[in-house]
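Below is a filled-in request sheet from our internal design queue. Each sheet records the structural input a requester submitted and the sequence that came back. We keep these sheets so that new team members can see what a complete request looks like end to end.

REQUESTER: design group, bay 2
PRIORITY: normal
MODE: inverse folding
CHAIN LENGTH: 486
BACKBONE (tokenized):
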């Protein structure tokens, strides 16, 4: 950009400085304008305009296992080769990711084939208006479901990203829905955060089945298992109300039981009631026990059928994550240390001590038959049930008080191709080999915006995993599907 002097030198210099800053923020907006058109010679073919790559997709993926193959000349590219094959579409219809953290046990893992090669964006879906996708998406029977902070629920096709239906509600949806099978067809369950209203829809059509107000706010995702839905509510300091756990009959919305998680005053500020709400999805063990973490630092163990409390163990202040359960053993963490809880919810002992950089901001663990994965400040860690130290650590950016990495999720669980995925605070998706801890590829999705509520820490959403497909909300609110098929 050229800036010439004239009698208004100070004003021109200020305008030039602002223009230069604008060019740094939006470089494509300051590209040089094309020159005057040159008349074509008679009989000559008109030149074709060059197609500029989209900024979000150009050079977004980096494959680390091997150097990327040389790009083919534009004339030899065949866009149709990137379209999903009939076999892939069939696999996506048969596979499922039914709820947050994949299953009632909260393992965050699936045996579905992982995406181990640098992926390509299969489709993007941007909700209408200012709606932004919130929480982890769920998938089943070839459809992907998600809610938005604007109060809309969406169903889109996994193969194309085409919207199947949309339903509007009067309240924000801040957590993942859950997909279940009921008489008369599959049902989708979503929660309106502020009022704590559970809403059920027919998954195929979006028709509302019922709406039941339980009492809010409910910030965590619902747990769906054995025909029941389990939810945790966050207590409000203004009303001095403790948090609670609910059990609801999935087919009717009838409340079966409610148990308060308690509340205690802050140690130093007596007038402030420390929240004891449950802000994350509970988990279910093989013997029917519900494990839930509350914001006052306890793990609560309750009988899933009656709601009777079995045990309450102090773990970590402001705990807000889903425990991972293997049979009758639950895995939780405290101050960067990984613990196991036994059948009655009592701490059995210390399993492993992560390195110092991982000691804060740990989220939900991911669990497979061989390994346990945790993501925290500066690192992704893998351990197992016998190790007293991490098997490996993989570097991640530092977290902030406003934003944390996603909880890890795993595809190809229990196989030689076991792969762990995590979305970091910079908006980069990492694929890491489970056995070695080496990076397979990274894909930049764009830096996330800061959370609207400065008092609430935002956690990056983890992708839902289908065979050879990852679907997740991008940092700017749209939903993106990534595939590694070529």
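RETURNED SEQUENCE:
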């Amino acid at each position: 950009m050229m800036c010439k002097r004239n009698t208004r030198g100070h004003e021109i210099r200020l305008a030039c400085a602002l223009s230069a800053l604008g060019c740094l923020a939006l470089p494509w907006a300051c590209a040089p304008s094309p020159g005057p058109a040159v008349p074509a010679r008679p009989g000559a073919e008109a030149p074709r305009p060059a197609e500029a790559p989209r900024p979000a997709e150009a050079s977004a993926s980096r494959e680390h296992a091997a150097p990327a193959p040389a790009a083919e000349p534009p004339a030899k590219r065949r866009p149709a080769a990137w379209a999903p094959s009939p076999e892939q579409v069939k696999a996506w219809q048969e596979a499922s990711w039914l709820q947050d953290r994949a299953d009632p046990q909260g393992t965050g893992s699936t045996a579905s084939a992982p995406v181990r090669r640098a992926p390509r964006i299969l489709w993007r879906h941007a909700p209408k208006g200012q709606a932004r996708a919130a929480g982890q998406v769920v998938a089943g029977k070839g459809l992907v479901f998600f809610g938005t902070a604007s109060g809309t629920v969406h169903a889109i096709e996994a193969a194309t990203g085409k919207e199947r239906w949309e339903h509007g509600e009067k309240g924000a949806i801040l957590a993942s829905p859950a997909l279940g099978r009921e008489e008369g067809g599959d049902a989708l369950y979503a929660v309106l955060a502020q009022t704590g209203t559970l809403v059920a829809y027919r998954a195929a059509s979006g028709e509302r089945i019922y709406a039941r107000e339980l009492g809010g706010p409910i910030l965590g995702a619902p747990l769906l298992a054995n025909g029941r839905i389990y939810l945790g509510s966050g207590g409000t300091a203004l009303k001095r109300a403790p948090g609670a756990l609910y059990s609801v009959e999935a087919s009717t919305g009838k409340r079966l039981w409610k148990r308060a998680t308690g509340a205690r005053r802050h140690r130093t500020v007596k007038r402030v009631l420390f929240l004891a709400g449950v802000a994350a999805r509970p988990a279910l063990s093989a013997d029917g026990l519900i494990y839930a973490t509350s914001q006052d630092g306890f793990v609560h163990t309750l009988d899933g059928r009656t709601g009777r409390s079995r045990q309450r163990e102090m773990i970590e202040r402001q705990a807000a994550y889903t425990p991972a359960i293997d049979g009758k053993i639950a895995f939780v963490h405290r101050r960067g240390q990984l613990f196991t809880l036994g059948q009655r919810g009592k701490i059995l002992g210390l399993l492993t001590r992560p390195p110092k950089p991982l000691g804060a901001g740990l989220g939900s663990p991911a669990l497979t038959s061989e390994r346990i994965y945790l993501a925290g400040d500066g690192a992704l860690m893998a351990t197992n049930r016998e190790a007293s130290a991490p098997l490996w650590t993989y570097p991640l950016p530092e977290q902030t008080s406003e934003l944390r990495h996603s909880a890890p999720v795993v595809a190809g669980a229990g196989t030689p191709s076991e792969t762990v995925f995590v979305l970091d605070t910079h908006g980069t998706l990492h694929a890491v080999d489970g056995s070695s801890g080496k990076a397979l590829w990274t894909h930049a999705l764009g830096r996330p915006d800061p959370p609207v509520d400065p008092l609430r820490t935002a956690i990056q959403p983890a992708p839902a995993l289908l065979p050879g497909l990852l679907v997740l909300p991008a940092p700017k609110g749209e939903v993106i599907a990534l595939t590694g098929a070529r």
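SHEET NOTES:
- The two ends are 42 Å apart (CA to CA).
- The mean pLDDT is 79.
FILED BY: M.R.
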